[in-house]
Amino acid sequence: MMKDDRSPGSMLDAMRAQKPLVQCITNFVAMNIAANVLLAAGASPAMVHAEEEAGEFAAISAALAVNIGTLSPSWMNGMRAAAASAGASARPWVLDPVAHYATTFRKRAVADLLALRPTIIRGNASEIIALAGGESRGQGVDSRDPVEQAEAAASQIASKYHAVVAVTGEVDFVTDGARGCRIEGGSSLMPQVTALGCSLTCLVGAFAASRPDAPFEATVAALAMFAVAGEEVARADDGPGSFSWRFLDALAAIDGAAIDKNARVRML
Ligand SMILES: Nc1ncnc2c1ncn2[C@@H]1O[C@H](COP(=O)(O)OP(=O)(O)O)[C@@H](O)[C@H]1O
Ligand SMILES: Cc1ncsc1CCOP(=O)(O)O
Ligand SMILES: [Mg+2]
């Protein structure tokens, strides 16, 4: 479906060979699991958010992930500084607009961050629908909308902000405004494990770090890695607790060849 060096498996092998430093300004819930997901996948995560250092750290990182899950004014200053610094040094950065529709504070934060031009935006269906100004049924951080209903919103946002947009759920959707792609796989247990979406946003950052010239394919590769690993772990047919640790093991065990063999990625 994609040129060889841009296949999800090739992108994984390249990312692992590089072991990119990814600055993650994520939330208190996600910090531990997101760092473990990046380590298992082969990247080098650093959770650095203080306003006094976030901009300086972004200048030495290969990519940045910004997530508003547990926001405060001081964290917001750190996010602004880091995003501006990543932009100034032409490093890719990924925005996760967690529950941005829920409060005025979050809405303003996301508007500020969008003005700093994220390379990639990754959210669940409710978040992406609301980002385009639509009526979302989201409840707090949880989506209650199907991905198909967010696809038009994703395309609209991608064109408006010149960004790659990824909507995740049962079948993921990625677009850069011109191209679109669906990724099947994963497991219904994934939304039962907190902060897997936030961790995926950081992983998208790792793939984009290694291929800043190909943010669309990098995003597809990160989502394909989650889809293949999640589907494999779901075969154990257990609960969310064991899914969480098995998922880390599956991410660590998977290689590029396995992803290219098992990923169900369909260009539209
Ligand atoms: N019902 C589902 N079936 C398969 N995979 C899912 C399902 N729901 C979510 N996922 C996967 O879980 C991961 C996190 O996505 P999601 O739950 O949409 O994000 P968030 O945690 O931000 O709401 C993605 O890899 C997504 O494909
Ligand atoms: C539960 C919760 N509360 C604030 S942030 C957060 C984590 C959300 O993680 P995800 O968006 O990946 O489900
Ligand atoms: Mg989320």
Give an overview of the whole structure.
The chain crosses the membrane at residues 21-42. ATP binds at residues 122, 168. The chain has 268 residues and is of the alpha/beta class. It has eleven helices and nine strands. It is globular. The model has no long low-confidence stretch (mean pLDDT 97). Adenosine-5'-diphosphate is lined by residues 124, 143, 168-170, 172, 186-188, 190-191, 196-197, 200, 226-227, 230.
Proper CATH architecture:
3-Layer(aba) Sandwich
For the record, the count of structural domains works out to 1
Q: Sheet bearing the most strands, described? A: 9 strands, mixed
Number of helices: 11
Strand segment count: 9
- CATH fold label: UDP-N-acetylmuramoyl-L-alanine:D-glutamate ligase
Organism: Rhizobium metallidurans
Binding site for ATP: 122, 168
InterPro entries: Hyethyz_kinase, Ribokinase-like
Protein name: Hydroxyethylthiazole kinase
Descriptors:
UDP-N-acetylmuramoyl-L-alanine:D-glutamate ligase, 9 strands, alpha/beta, 268 residues, transmembrane helix, 11 helices, binds adenosine-5'-diphosphate, nucleotide-binding, binds 4-methyl-5-hydroxyethylthiazole phosphate, EC 2.7.1.50, binds magnesium ion
Brief summary:
Its cofactor is Mg(2+). By secondary structure, this protein is an alpha/beta fold.
Helices and strands in order, then pairings?
Elements: H1 8-18, E1 21-25, H2 31-41, E2 44-46, H3 54-58, E3 63-67, H4 73-88, E4 93-96, H5 104-115, E5 120-124, H6 125-131, H7 151-161, E6 164-168, E7 171-175, E8 180-184, H8 196-210, H9 215-234, H10 240-253, H11 256-262, E9 264-267
Parallel strand pairs: 1-2, 1-3, 3-4, 4-5, 5-6
Antiparallel strand pairs: 6-7, 7-8, 8-9
Helix pairs in contact: 1-8, 1-9, 1-11, 2-8, 2-10, 6-7, 8-9, 9-10
The chain binds adenosine-5'-diphosphate, 4-methyl-5-hydroxyethylthiazole phosphate and magnesium ion.
